[in-house]
Amino acid sequence: MSRDHLQSAERPAPAAGAPGRAFPDARPVSGSSETPFLELLARGASAEAYEQPVLLARAEGLPAERIAALQQAKVLALRVRAELEGRRRREAELSALFETAHDLAGLRDLDAVLQAIVQRARSLLGTDVAYLSLNDPVRGDTYMRVTEGSVAARFQQLRLGMGEGLGGLVAQTARPYVTDDYFRDDRFQHTHSIDTGVRDEGLVAILGVPLTLGHHVIGVLFAADRRARVFEREQIALLGSFAALAAAAIDTANLLAETRSALAGLERANEIIKDRSAVIERASDVHDRLAELVLRGGGVHDVAAAVSQVLDGTVEFTEATAAPDRALESSRAEGHAVRHRDDWIAAVAAGDELLGALVLRGHPGLDPVDQRTLERAAMVTSLLLLARRSAAEAEQRVRGELLDELLDARARDPRLLRERAARLRADLDATHAVLAARLEGPAADADEEADARRRLWAAASHLAATRQGLAAARDGGTVLLLPLASGDTATELARRTARHLGTAVHGPVTVGASAPVEHLTARPDTVASAYAEARRCLDALRLLGRAGDGSAAEDFGFLGLLLAGERDIAGFVTRTIGQVVAYDERRGTELLRTLDAYFACGMSPARTKDELHVHVNTVAQRLERVGRLLGDDWQSPARALEIQLALRLHRLSGGTPPPARH
Length: 662
Description:
Strand order of the largest sheet: 3-2-1-6-5-4
Strand content: 5-15%
Oligomer: single chain
Low-confidence stretches: 1-31, 658-662
């Protein structure tokens, strides 16, 4: 099997006559010629024994016609023997599959069923070892579940990262794969832990088939030998049948466990319904108290205090950034309070926007009625926050107007600008950073895009109000003017802002920041220039594939100087990779894209062809063409560094590889 490209492990079956049909080249022979071979067939002799009648005839000096007849009878007998052997083998395989299916029908112990599957697979395929691995969605890796014939403890305890080894290749493609020499096969990713385990076990030839439930791969079933071996198509199909039974056994066991869990939950719910009528009345009282709080203008902390009394615990309102991320997201998605260690988290949300959370501290044994009480309190809190937001929108508009004037670089009286900012609790004489923020992700239509921009502007305005800054909508995104605390950097501020806004709008937000600026009213274009720098950082982040991150110009080092200065970037790109760019433009090829992927994959043709989904020979041909265009030394360290920098600058300047040809 070639190791230069991925291929299915299936191999064509050897041709054989169909059962019941006469062999096409058979000619009548005398009964005496067939008799010794019939006796050999009757006693199940080995294939070598069929040579004896012919050898004896030659030794006795029988006529050539007699020897030819015996030779023809031998060929026919061997074919019949092969057909009988095939039928016996298929009968054994079907019997094993039937027994496994019978075990599955009366499933009591999942481990016992899986062990039987592995044992039968090893026996029928005649391999030294058979084993089965399952994916662990919690830890994000895969582990050995059952082994048969293994002698190495380290091999039996392997835990593998997803996508590693032959099993990773099977899981990625959901197709069987085979290698006749594991350590010489470069189609899949080798790791130290996997190779060490395989070496301890002494394995050479390995066949793996996927365990699938629907379209999802949940594990891999393997058969392996400690010597080089070619697995035939029938053997691959047989192992696939065992894998299907193993997947069915796992699915059945999971369904049984879920059914038992559901029944236990129903029993518990029935007990709660019978025993908690008094608690339901208390919940009604909570509803009345919360309604009264809203009517008399209470705040979110008043709601938290009221619920604390009812639940006999401590309930606090926290900002979204202060709550546990996973628990908060789970509560928002499910619409229910969720447990986090000894606390309960109820998301306070308006549509897809997270406004904060109600946290019940140190109360792990919360019953369903009290959980519903906490959820209702979260709903009331969201209504109060929305009401407070509507009152604050006027102030946000004023903040936006002030920032718009600073960005438009119009000549204004500095004293009046500072007075207006002071009324908004902003100090224009302090050190600030200008940040450009944009919400990532495609929008289904114009209405959805406009809604996303409004949500981003609202979240940015809220952040600016709480941080004594300014915010405004501009250029399809949002611009913020935020003060820098002592010891803080523009980079740290950009990253915090990206995380805060992303959590608030429930989506990735990219933020570019300017260098720190002072004396914002000294020159009309101070804020405008800083905003232009922040926009360049934002564009650079997106071009570099760092959408959803935050960064400042100071992070880009020498690349940032190129972006900000009056440098001949286009000339450098043309001198370095101009011939490749021109060749792609003329021919519609993908040399530039291949070159970029080649460096991204550590200059490995094998990994590059996986990245581009092409044959490794295609990668080699393209790289050979690149060598003709750029010179034989293009892969030397110095040239490679220049080429990679030119590729990066080409992308940053708006150049993109030509579309793929189909």
